[in-house]
Amino acid sequence: MRKFLTFVSLLLIPLAPVAARAHAFLDHASPLVGSTVATAPHEVVMTFTQNLEPAFSTAQVTDSSGARVDQGKAQVSGNTMTVGLKALGPGSYKVHWHALSVDTHSTEGAFTFHVGGR
User: Fold this and answer.
1) What are the angstrom distances between the C-alpha of 48 and each of 15, 16, 45, 57, 74?
2) 46 closest CA partner among 12, 85, 74, 5
3) Among the CATH numbers 2.40.10.350, 2.60.40.1220, 3.30.420.310, 2.170.270.10, which is that of 23-115?
4) Mean pLDDT lowest for which of 5-9, 33-37, 113-117?
5) Mean pLDDT of the chain
6) What does the pLDDT look like over 12-49, one tens digit per residue?
7) How much is the pLDDT for 8?
8) Distance CA 101, CA 5 (A)
9) Which of 6, 13, 83, 110 is deepest in the core (most CB within 10 A)?
């Protein structure tokens, strides 16, 4: 019995990393997470580790007072989510995203970027 359990365990080990990657996590963004940009971007582009479900993946961008500065619904294509921005002035901005991967796992997070000097 012990040999059988060892054999089954060895068969299941390669599956563990696949399960760990079953969620769509933010891989990178433009503007970069935590960065300071000299000129205001026209959009925020986020690339995830898996393809997203467009109907249930969202992003909002707010200024330091909490007012929304995005242009509404984010656009999703494959593993990329893009949200347009209104004209931004110097300051700090927060991007809050919610991603539903095509395999139905949900993740969310937030990051900031700055326009101009701090």
Assistant:
1) 21, 20, 10, 11, 14
2) 74
3) 2.60.40.1220
4) 5-9
5) 88
6) 555 554 444 568 999 999 999 999 999 999 999 999 99
7) 45
8) 33
9) 83
Supply φ then ψ for residue 6, to 5 degrees: -65, -45
Distance between alpha carbon 98 and the CA centroid of its chain, in Å?
7
Q: What is the distance between the alpha carbons of residues 40 and 3, in angstroms, rounded to a whole number?
A: 62
CA atoms within 13 A on the CB side of 66: 0
- What single-letter amino acid sits at 99? A
With vertex at residue 67, the alpha carbon angle to CA 26 and CA 64, rounded to the nearest 5 degrees, is: 70
